[in-house]
Write a structure and sequence with these properties.
This protein is mainly beta. It contains 10 helices and 57 strands. The strands form 12 sheets. It has a 24-stranded parallel β-sheet that branches. A 6-stranded antiparallel β-sheet has the order 21-20-19-14-13-25, with no helix packed on it. Strands 22-23-24-10-26 form a 5-stranded antiparallel β-sheet, with no helix packed on it.
């Protein structure tokens, strides 16, 4: 690229992958250009590995109809990984002769009726502000800061049918060049008669020297080479009409050119076709339109024209000195020609060029950076001793696009070419887009791609594939081969056959009679196995014998019951070993069989009415996931059991739209359910049972749940509420009382629950008193004392808004018990989160590790929590703020026996 650069930076060696600035260092043009070259090289390498050469199916360059001027579909083309695009003025095809970047192309009709090969020549062209005025910045008074490059794609032709392009179309030229700084001398020193020469003290300077192949042409059947060179990289160029003063003066060679002549790098065919390149002149005389391009002008130090075939210098000049082949070999302008080697003395450098048996491409160039801080007269600045360097570029990349017959018709692409010039994106890759290597002609019928190969497989017949029967199978007492030999008799092959014969025999004769089966020992400790119940013999036999016995003799009496599955209590009996025995057990149940009745969403209300009408002793319902509304008052009662289970309180939901729902039975189970009251319904669920289990429940009141308890658990059965188990549940009252408990006569476990609302607990008292709402300390409460039964009440790991233990009157006087407490014999309150104002009453009270919440500042009551017991152990509690105090009492006769330790209550 002929532009104002200081020097070139190689990127191939030592294989740089990036350019990084250093703190406080200057940035040079070579650094920026090296980074651009590295990134460009990495992109091209990646595309070469992934694509190589070709055109995409969508938007790719394509050759249209033939003739003397074939049409080209503009688009993208990849050549050796280099991406290029042939631009057109519109989306319409353009003729071969009308390419915007290839005006010098000779016309196809000049091929003399021969076949021709169309190929793409892809290379990079430098663009300066002369060719593109947009690169000049008006804010900088029209100065240009950078230059650009364009990747050109030129569709050219060469006579003949070429499978691969000839060697003459090389990527770039091959001629090696050596440049050496001249040792400048003058003649004899008049002051020293003995001296024949002396050094001239002259600075080396700093510049980028460029040698470029201007043209390679044939004249009178002889090949000619035109070279030109410049000490400023050939970058001094201007518009002819706006050349600065003095630009037309001096000992220079001027090149007059235009945008089209700059795009003529590379070779054109026929080789004797004259290509209009820039016009070189030793005087600043602008060519007219008939002479050649004249829009721009560029300065060079010198040029030469060399006849390569005769090895003669035809003309040339360097810095005003005419080139010559006679005289002193040290003289400026001297040219030496010796058996394919050229030596030239320019004003600054000595050229050593080998041109014999070498390729030259118009546009080839060499560059050498001269630096006076490192170079001295006589130093080589390009090449090494005895070995020159090949040109840097311009690099050309070629790809055959198609072929024309002698009559001008376009030869249709073969399959490989079709895939190359219409490759799909990876997301649309099909079998027809993948090549195929032919290795079995009879099998694949000369397929060229995978799709054709697969299609060819469709025609393969089983008669074409041989098959050899195996020898006797080892460790097998009975095999399909032995059975088929008996079943198929004479039709079964004896030795080698074809797949067709074998398949025909199998399809016609292979059945359960020919399929062996081995019964295994399958005894079970849980009960008899299916094999034992069917009385199948453990031996090798045809599958038909086993199937016939199963199909003919299988009854419910011979199908074993799965003893490892979850069974209801009735089916766990030893008498239920088979399905028939299990059915007999279930038929004897009062519910008419079945462990639970499955209820679909929306059917619960009807099922409850049916069950109540049947007066069943056991009610066991399993609610499937969904909403189960109850719109009417349907009290549910059973003589022995009510069990209602669901799939989890997020799945099975009972929605109440009336005020009260009652469940009454000696044994009640509510598990994995959600019960929710409708809007504006102040509802109550009343559980009346002797043994109550409630686990993984969510009961949610309405926004107006502020009157009466949301859940009430009591017992009207003889003996009272024997046991209560409330675990892993959420009671969300939204205000008021969430849970009201009557007394528990034996045991209760309230564990792992979240209760948003108050819990009221009453132990069969005559007059209920709430120590939080009544001033017990200042008022003596008198009344009857109520004795309690032995019972245990455990409250652990719960979060409760407020727990209220309602006690009998006359219990507390002047801060101490006036009489023994009659509540639960054992009351354990451990590791709960309790609201301030809670109270707990029991005969023996053990309170440990509870957390209090709910009061701060002026709202803090005098008593944070009440602990009232005959015997009391209270340790390790926490409150927020820690200043909250607890109120405790113990019966005076037992006070000495209490262990009392309040830390932060």
């Amino acid at each position: 690229m002929k532009t104002q650069t200081s020097h070139t930076t190689p990127i191939d060696n030592p294989g740089y992958s990036g350019v990084y600035q250093q703190q406080g260092r200057m940035i040079t043009d070579a650094d920026w250009n090296a980074l651009t070259d590295i990134e460009k090289q990495r992109l091209v390498s990646a595309l070469r590995d992934a694509i190589a050469s070709g055109a995409p199916r969508q938007g790719g360059l394509a050759i249209g109809s033939g003739g003397d001027d074939p049409l080209i579909e503009p688009g993208i083309l990849y050549v050796d990984g280099v991406p290029a695009r042939l631009q057109g003025e519109s989306s319409k095809p353009i003729p071969l002769s009308g390419q915007p970047d290839c005006a010098a192309l000779p016309r196809l009709e000049n091929r003399g009726g021969q076949p021709a090969t169309l190929f793409a020549d892809v290379w990079e062209l430098g663009v300066t502000a002369l060719e593109d005025p947009e690169l000049m910045d008006p804010a900088l008074h029209g100065a240009d800061s950078t230059t650009r490059t364009r990747t050109l794609v030129q569709v050219k032709w060469i006579p003949g049918e070429w499978e691969t392009l000839p060697d003459v179309l090389a990527e770039r030229g091959s001629a090696p060049l050596t440049l050496t700084l001249r040792k400048i001398v003058v003649g004899d020193d008049p002051c020293d008669p003995c001296a024949s020469e002396m050094d001239l003290d002259e600075r080396i300077g700093n510049y980028l020297f460029r040698v470029e192949v201007h043209d390679v042409f044939i004249k009178d059947a002889e090949r000619h080479l035109v070279l030109k060179w410049s000490r400023d990289n050939g970058a001094e160029a201007h518009e002819v009409e706006h050349a600065p003063p003095g630009f037309n003066q001096g000992h220079w060679v001027w090149e007059f050119y235009d945008a089209d002549s700059e795009k003529t790098a590379g070779l054109y065919f026929p080789e004797d076709h004259p290509v209009q390149r820039g016009v070189l002149k030793t005087e600043f005389t602008v060519p007219d339109a008939s002479e050649g391009p004249h829009h721009f002008v560029r300065q060079w130090d010198g040029y030469l024209v060399l006849n390569l075939d005769t090895q003669t210098l035809e003309e040339g000049q360097d810095r005003g000195t005419r080139l010559h082949t006679s005289g002193s070999s040290d003289a400026h302008g001297w040219v030496g020609l010796d058996d394919g080697h050229l030596t030239l003395n320019s004003e600054l450098l000595e050229f050593q060029l080998t041109h014999k048996d070498q390729h030259f491409l118009p546009g080839d160039y060499w560059q050498a950076a001269v630096r006076e801080t490192v170079h001295n007269s006589g130093d080589r600045v390009l090449g090494s001793a005895g070995e020159g360097e090949a040109p840097l570029g311009v690099r050309h990349h070629y790809l055959i696009l198609g072929h024309l017959n002698a009559d001008g018709t376009l030869v249709e692409h073969d399959d490989a070419e079709r895939r190359r010039f219409a490759f799909p994106p990876l997301t649309d890759l099909k079998a027809s887009d993948v090549g195929f290597t032919q290795q079995c002609e009879n099998l694949y019928h000369n397929a060229e791609n995978v799709q054709q190969a697969l299609d060819a497989l469709c025609d393969i017949g089983a008669e074409d594939i041989a098959y050899r029967l195996p020898d006797a199978c080892e460790d097998q007492d009975l095999t399909p081969r032995e059975l088929l030999e008996k079943v198929a008799d004479d039709q079964w092959p004896k030795d080698k056959t074809t797949v067709e014969t074998l398949l025909d025999t199998l399809l016609c004769h292979f059945n359960s009679d020919a399929l062996p089966h081995t019964l295994k020992d399958c005894k079970s400790e849980e009960g008899p196995s299916y094999r034992e119940l069917l009385k199948l013999e453990k031996k090798h036999q045809p599958t038909s014998d086993v199937l016939n016995q199963i199909l003919c003799e299988t009854t419910a009496q011979r199908i074993p019951l799965d003893r490892e599955a979850e069974l209801c209590e009735e089916l766990k009996r030893a008498e239920a070993q088979t399905v028939q025995e299990a059915l007999n057990v279930l038929c004897r149940r009062d519910t008419g069989g079945g462990c639970a009745r499955v209820v679909e969403p929306g059917q619960l209300e009807g099922v409850l009415r049916d069950v109540m009408a049947s007066n069943a002793e056991h009610i066991w319902l399993c609610l499937k996931p969904g909403e189960h509304p109850i719109t009417g008052d349907i009290p549910v009662s059973a003589k022995k059991l009510i069990r209602i289970t669901g799939a989890g309180y997020h799945a099975s939901q009972i929605r109440m739209t009336f005020r009260e729902w009652g469940l009454k039975a000696p044994e009640i189970y509510l598990v994995d359910l959600s019960i929710q009251f409708g809007d504006n319904v102040r509802g109550t669920i009343e559980i009346d049972g002797a043994d109550v289990t409630m686990e993984r429940l969510q009961i949610q009141g309405s926004e107006r749940q502020d009157e009466g308890p949301m859940l009430r658990i009591l017992s009207s059965h003889s003996g009272g509420l024997n046991s209560l188990f409330l675990n892993n549940s959420r009671l969300l009252a939204r205000g008021g009382t969430a849970l009201f408990l009557e007394h528990v006569s034996q045991r209760a476990l309230i564990q792992n629950n979240y209760i948003a609302g108050e819990v009221h607990y009453s132990h069969s008292i005559s007059k209920q008193v709430d120590p939080h709402t009544q001033n017990i300390r200042s008022n003596r409460i008198e009344g009857d004392r109520v004795e309690g039964k032995d019972s245990a009440f455990i409250i652990e790991n719960n979060t409760v808004q407020r727990w209220v233990s309602l006690m009998e009157s006359g219990l507390v006087r002047r801060g101490a018990l006036s009489q023994p407490v009659s509540g639960p014999v054992t009351l354990a309150v451990n590791q709960n989160s309790l609201g301030v104002g809670s109270s707990f009453i029991g005969q023996r009270l053990n309170a440990y590790g509870n957390q209090l919440f709910g009061a701060s500042g002026n709202d803090q009551p005098e008593t944070a929590v009440w602990l009232i017991a005959n015997q009391l152990i209270a340790t390790g509690h926490m409150g927020d703020p820690p200043s909250l105090v607890g109120r405790f009492s113990a019966f005076r006769h037992s006070l000495d026996n209490n262990l009392l330790d309040f830390k932060q209550l």
